[in-house]
Amino acid sequence: MGKCPCTEFAQCFGALWWLSGERRVTESLGIVIVEDDVLIAMDLADLLIGGGHDVRAIARTEFEAVAAAEKFRPDMMIVDGNLEDGSGVSAMREILARRFVRHFYVTGDPLQDQGLASDAIVVAKPFNLRELAGGIARARQMPETLPIARNQ
Description:
Number of helices: 5
Strand content: 15-25%
Mean pLDDT: 81
Structural class: alpha/beta
Largest sheet: 5 strands, parallel
């Protein structure tokens, strides 16, 4: 793929969805972002909104992630595995004990020691738009019976 002619990241994100076979307006998802780095969270929110999604909340801690999932009942969560205050993996374990939420992890750190299931969806930081779109597409196909994390 050549250089994208778009002048805005949001346009480029929409073009990427189209190029990857996803239709930008197929289904707008209500998304909660769990990310303790404010700049990363803001950039991710901008990309998601530009892709036609509804960012319902940004949570920065494990506690906020659980509360946001309960309050906003998202269709999907994008979760940093290691948070400054708590663990994204532990937050998802608690959320999934209450109800199923499609999700994937974005992280720059290994998550194996946190009891993550071998079939969990993980997008490594730094990621590009194609990898983000791929994580969303894979999470959309996640069966509700999928074991996400082992209990420790």
